[in-house]
Design brief:
This protein is α+β, with helices and mostly antiparallel strands and 321 residues long. Helix content is 34%, strand content 19%.
Amino acid sequence: MNGAIDVRALGKVAVLMGGRSAEREVSLMSGQGVLAALRRRGVDAHPFDPAERDLCELKRAGFARAFIALHGRWGEDGTVQGLLELLGIPYTGSGVQACAVAIDKTLTKRLWQAEGLPTPAWRRVASVAEAEAALEALGAPMIVKPAREGSTIGLTKVMARGQCADAYRLAARHDPEVLCEQFIAGPEVTCAVLGHGAAAQALPLIRIVAPGGQYDYHAKYFSDATRYLVPSGLPPEQEAAIQALVLRAYRALGCRGWARADVMIDEASGQPYLLELNTAPGMTSHSLVPMAAQAAGLDYDTLCLRLLADAALDLAPAQEP
């Protein structure tokens, strides 16, 4: 794959990192990793923080491509993608529509349900009373989280009615749309996908074993106690079935480039349930896509270069008359 990529043809590259979302800190770590990897491969890559510079400078500064290492809002929600479309600068990852849908967990669940894909039962709520009603309907434990955030920010595992008020208020501080979701007890796995359409490929599954079973923000990015098992240890036929499910979920949202889906496996039935799909996954030292790629024989630098080479636009730039 490396030999087929003409690094000079990639032009001047902006690595978008930082930004204004709640995941700014992680985005900076991802971006610095990507920047260093691309430079090691000879790419003319430069850091670009949209929180500090106007994105319209990208065109004026002669950037030919953008590697999106932004996470959360204003990064993987379709907004930056839309501006890059207007500027005519190809970018990594999914397009405007896929990003806008994937960042919204309720919209994603509706689409997956329409496609017959399994996802935990859920309710969208707008008050403490509605969260309490959701607990009655879904049962305990119940997950309460913002509908349009990532990295488990604002998430609470509710065990009893008395916890609903604090859980709702925490989630609502991050997003006025709050999602209550049935808790699935069992192994947690994640599956990364590279590519587009029929050519998209699922990478090996990673099974996540977090301290106390709580895979929160700290466990994701800073804890050395969290264990990541790859190979996952699942039976080969079960792993293949989950990979096939994630590919269907990826294609249903119209994703391209790359993404990572989080899946819970019901310990009683063995049924996998799709939780969410990240269209700009982390690229830090603790991140899972590089780990899965390594298991598939794709080192970090090669992964970054491949993602950059696949940068695209939803629509080709209009031709001058």
